[in-house]
C-alpha cells in the first residue's frame, strides 16, 4: 500500500477517534441521544473498517487480517486480540444494529479507543 494512502487512512482513524471522544464527552448519558449514538457507532465502525483494510498476506476475513499483521510482527498479540474483538462489534453494528448493547459501546469508548491509536502508531512506523 502506498505511503500516502496509509497516511490518509491513519488520519481518518484519528479523526474518528477524535469525533467519538467529542460526541461522547465523558458522559454516558450522551449514548441515550440517538443522533450522538449513531455518530459514535458509525465512527467506531469506520475505524474498524479502515484498520481491517491494512492487510499483509491473504486473510480469509477481517479478523484474520490482524493475525496476519501479528504474524508479520507489525502488531503485538494483545493488540491483535483487541482489534479482532472490535471487528466483532463492527459486524454487529453493521448487520444487527438493533441488538447493540450500549454498555459495550461505552466500554469501547472508555477502554478501547487507545487500541486504534496503538494501531495507527504501528502503521506510522511503516510510513
Main features:
127 residues; Four Helix Bundle (Hemerythrin (Met), subunit A); 0% strand
The tally of domains stands at 1
**Sheet having the most strands:** none
Oligomer: single chain
Instruction: Please provide the ordered H/E string of secondary-structure elements.
Output: HHHHHH
Question: How confident overall, as mean pLDDT?
Answer: 78
The radius of gyration computed from the alpha-carbon positions, rounded to a whole number of angstroms, is: 14 Å
CATH level 1 name: Mainly Alpha
Overview of the structural elements:
- The chain is built from 6 helices and no strands.
- The model has no long low-confidence stretch (mean pLDDT 78).
- The protein is 73% helix and 0% strand.
- α1 runs antiparallel to α2, α2 crosses α4 and α3 packs antiparallel against α4.
- The longest helix has 22 residues.
- The radius of gyration is 14 Å and the shape is globular.
- The termini are close together.
- It has a single domain, classed as Up-down Bundle (Four Helix Bundle (Hemerythrin (Met), subunit A)).
- It is an all-alpha fold and 127 residues long.
- It holds the Pfam family HepT-like.
- Keywords: Hydrolase, Nuclease, Toxin-antitoxin system.
Amino acid at each position: 500500500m502506498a505511503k500516502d494512502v496509509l497516511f490518509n487512512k491513519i488520519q481518518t482513524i484519528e479523526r474518528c477517534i477524535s469525533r467519538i471522544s467529542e460526541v461522547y464527552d465523558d458522559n454516558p448519558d450522551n449514548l441515550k441521544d440517538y443522533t450522538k449514538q449513531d455518530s459514535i457507532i458509525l465512527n467506531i465502525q469506520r475505524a474498524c473498517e479502515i484498520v481491517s483494510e491494512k492487510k499483509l498476506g491473504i486473510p480469509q476475513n477481517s479478523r484474520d487480517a490482524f493475525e496476519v499483521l501479528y504474524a508479520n510482527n507489525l502488531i503485538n498479540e494483545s493488540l491483535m486480540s483487541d482489534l479482532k474483538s472490535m471487528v466483532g462489534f463492527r459486524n454487529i453494528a453493521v448487520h444487527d444494529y438493533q441488538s447493540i448493547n450500549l454498555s459495550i459501546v461505552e466500554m469501547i469508548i472508555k477502554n478501547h479507543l487507545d487500541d486504534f491509536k496503538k494501531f495507527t502508531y504501528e502503521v506510522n512506523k511503516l510510513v
